[in-house]
Each structure stands twice: as structure tokens, then as C-alpha cells.
Amino acid sequence: MPSSVWKGMISFGLVSIPIRLFAAARSKRTYLHQIHKVCNTRLKQPLFCPTCNRIVERSEVIKGYEYETGQYVLLDGDEIKKITPPSGKIMEIITFLDQADVDPIYFDSSFVALPEEHAEKPYRLLLRALEDTKKMGVAKVTMHQREQTVFIRSRKNGLTLHTMYYQNEIAAVEGYGKDYDVKLKPEEIKLADQLVESLSGAFAPEAYKDEFQARLNELIEAKLKGKAVAISPKTTKAPVIDMMEALKKSLATPGAKPHKAIPVHGERHRRKAG
Fold it and tell me: CA nearest 14: which of 81, 90, 110, 85?
């Protein structure tokens, strides 16, 4: 089992649940290192102090905030512990929200919570309450030197937590959500709805893969075995056609796949081109 990232309690009302948090998901990638082309040696980035002109040990490292160029406020571990709020050990649920009310864009990192020994009953009690009410708990937790707001929800017979992006961390992109001045024909809407339905299916996470990473691993494996490298075939752009024609052709194609999209222009652009 991987090591836990946080140990403490979830509390709601007078109920306390000793738990441990574990990372729920991590990116799995093939990482490429920087290699010195001359001698094929992996390049490293050690903890080097230019003043002392030597590599330093981890035990010699403390935290520092740069308030001016080259000027630091120094903080040691004990000082940081003293200012850690109660949420460093107790994750108190502040409120409960309907699951449907929270936009997934606010979800950041995900964690699974496991009960400590003999804490299975209160853990199960909270889990059952969330399942019955279809709600999520909102709590505060301090870890990695930051107090996070977290959502606690039921998932696959367990408690899953998501740290929250704060409102000022959500990008505001000018023009997003604009009510574009275009008119959609009822037939266009109907065909688009039918196309969405025809391409719909049950969510199967195992069906989605990182093709670049797969090809990268194949390339590395081929290099190791001294084989020739297969180059990915070039794709050609599909012709630009009328939107209605594109929708009709998409629906008429047996087993149409969403990744074979046909670029289209609206009627206004088509009239200009003609």
C-alpha cells in the first residue's frame, strides 16, 4: 500500500472518524531525462550553495520568503508547526451541499480516505448518510503548508476527497459563455441532438488511453531491441462542407466515430465563399 499523505480526523457534529488520506490518482507517464550528448551521462540538479561552493545536505535546508531581491525571511520547521491551524489534524465538516450544485471545474487533486482501526462504524455512518442524501461534505484541511477546502463525497462504497480550486484560481477568459448572435434552424438542432445520441455510450475509462505515451514506449522498446522505428501516418484534412450536410452524413455513417469530425462553416461564411 502507498504511504498516506495525511493522518487525522473527519468530524461532523459530535462524530469523529480517525482516517488516513491516500492519493487517489497519479499521472502515469514515461519520463525522459536530460542527457549530456557528449558522454551520455544523465544531467542532475543538486542542492548547490554558490556562496559555500558545495553541495548541501537536506538537513541544512530551511524555508525562506524572498521579500526583496536576495533578502529572505527565514522560517524553520518548528515555527511553521506553531502556526498550523487545527485543520492540520481535524477535518471538520462545515456544511453539506447537493452533489449536483458543484461544478467539477472546482475539483483539484483527489484522495481516498480509509478509516483507522476500530473507526469503521463512524466511517460507514458518514458514507451511508452521504449516499442517502446525495450530498457532499465541505471541510478544511491543512497539508503541504496550505489550508485547503475539500469536498468529501461517497464513491464506490468509500469516501473520496477532492481539494477545491478557489474562485480566484478559476480562469476568467474573455468571451467565454458569450451569447453568440447566431440562429440555429430547428432541423439543425434536431440532427445535432440525434448525432449526439448516436455517438453516446456508457463510460468505460479503460477505453481511453494516452496514444503518445503508448507510441513513446514502443519507440523506446524498438530502440532497445535495435528495430526500425515505425512513423505515425500523416493525417489529411477533411473537406469543408455545409453544416447540414455534415450532420446528415455523420448520422448516415454506420458506427460513426466522434474523432473523425468534419470541419464546417456556418451559412454566413458559406455564402461569402460562394
Answer: 90
Residue type for position 201: G
* pTM, entire model: 0.65
Round to whole Å and give the CA distance between 50 and 238. Answer: 57
Query: What is the chain's length?
Result: 274
Q: How many Cβ atoms are within 10 Å of 16's Cβ, its own excluded? A: 16
Q: Where are the alpha helices (DSSP H) in 116-238?
A: 120-133, 186-198, 211-225
Q: Which residues contact 273 (CB under 8 A, 6 or more apart)?
A: 265
d(C-alpha 164, C-alpha 151), whole Å: 7
What are the residue boundaries of the structural domains of the chain, listed by start? Answer: 6-27+82-167, 186-199+208-273
Q: Using 50, 70 and 90 to split pLDDT, how confident is the model at 75?
A: confident
Q: What is the pLDDT of residues 209-251, one digit of tens each?
A: 878 788 888 888 887 888 766 565 666 665 656 777 777 777 8
Distances 145 to 16, 73, 84, 142, 152 between C-alpha atoms, Å: 24, 16, 8, 7, 20
C-alpha cell at 190: 434536431
Nearest to 160 by CA among 15, 8, 19: 19
**What's the CATH number of domain 6-27+82-167, 2.40.290.10, 1.10.10.10, 3.40.50.720, 3.90.550.10?**
2.40.290.10
Q: Which of 219, 213, 102 is nearest to 152 (CA)?
A: 102
